[in-house]
Structure formats: structure tokens, C-alpha cells
Amino acid sequence: MTKHIALLRGINVGGHAKIAMKDLRGLFTGMGFEAVQTYLQSGNVVFGAPEPQTPAELAARIEERIAQELGVSLTVVLRSAGSLARTIAANPYLGEEDDPAKLHVTFLAREPSAEQAARLEVPAGESAVFTLAGDEIHLHVPDGYGRTKLNNAFIERRLGIPATTRNWRTVGALHALAADDSPPTPGR
């Protein structure tokens, strides 16, 4: 069994695409996944799945099931516990920033082509910076994510790839949950 992290794009944001975490856990459990845990209300699910399914196949199955059972059409970006560990190790801004609230990761549904990647540049007058690393973008937003133009919508428009962004605390918490082999905590 492989531990995965499902990052659901755009749920429970601004009153749109509302999904209760209890319902989400039930859906994942009903799909035969094990050790299902959710984190926060923003669509983060850690779960165990048997092999051999590709991440794309698994994400598509989850998207389809959420649409069927919960009536919400959304994008699921999937990461393994191992890939999330590599994400944490690869953050180029950890040594530059003491405040984790100013660090974010945008998880892309797939790696952009060189042509797509060339379209991604920091908007004029922006203090934020980014580093594209495969299918992820590390962000350093000194003025805060709520003020940056280098946000999820901007990145999706430039790359033409579905994406979802998480703050550094959430990335760390999901990594810890995915690395933990103990039984899930009740209520999670």
C-alpha cells in the first residue's frame, strides 16, 4: 500500500463547492482506501491505496466519484508521501524566510512543457518570487499570499494547467500525516 495525498482544488473557498470533511472521508473509505484522514476544510486527504494505479488514474477515479456522489466537479492533484518529502527538501526559500506564512507551494496537475514554463514570469512590481521544480512551484511571498498577483489563478492562466496552492504549514502537516504509520486520529 502506498500513502497518497489528494489535494482538491477550490473546495470550501468563498462558499463555493462545499464538501464536509466527514463526507469526503466516507467517500474515500467507500472507494476502498485505508487510513483516510483529512486536514483542515480545504480539501486535503491523506490515504493509503493499493498498487498498481498510476497517480493520473487514481486522481481521475477520485474526481469522478466526487462528482457522482457529492455533485462537485473539481480537480484532484495527487502526490505520494515520497514526492511530498522531496517537495519539502527542495524548497529553495527555507534559508531565506523565517516566517512559514510567506512560503507556499503550487502543486500542478502535470509538469509544464518548456514552452508553457517560459510563459510564467513574475508580474511587474511584484515582490513575490517563484521557482518551478517539475510539477510544483515554490513561492516566496514577502507581502503575503493574499496580496500577491503570483497566485493560483495567475499560474493556471499562464501555464494552462490545473493547479492548487497550499501554505508551508499545510505542506508540513500533510507530510507528517503521510509519514505517520499510526492509526488515524478520531475526528480527522
Poorly predicted ranges: 182-188
The outline comes out as: globular
CATH level-two architecture of the largest domain? 2-Layer Sandwich
Helix and strand pattern: EHEEHEHEHEEHEH
What does the largest sheet look like?
4 strands, antiparallel
Report the portion of residues in β strands. Answer: 15-25%
What does the radius of gyration come to? 16 Å
Question: Helix fraction?
Answer: 25-40%
The top level CATH class name of the largest domain: Alpha Beta
Number of strands: 8
Strand order of the largest sheet: 2-3-1-4
**What is the CATH topology assignment of the largest domain?**
Alpha-Beta Plaits
Count of folded domains: 2
Count of DSSP H/I helices: 6
What's the pLDDT, averaged over the residues?
90
Structural class estimated from helices and strands: alpha+beta
Distance between the termini: 20 Å
Describe this structure in words.
This protein has 188 residues and is an alpha+beta fold. The protein has two domains: 2-83, 2-Layer Sandwich (Alpha-Beta Plaits); 84-172, 2-Layer Sandwich (Alpha-Beta Plaits), CATH 3.30.70. Helices cover 32% and strands 24% of the residues. The chain has six helices and eight strands; from the N terminus they run E-H-E-E-H-E-H-E-H-E-E-H-E-H. The strands form two sheets. Strands 2-3-1-4 form a four-stranded antiparallel beta sheet, with helices on both faces. A four-stranded antiparallel beta sheet has the order 6-7-5-8. It is globular.
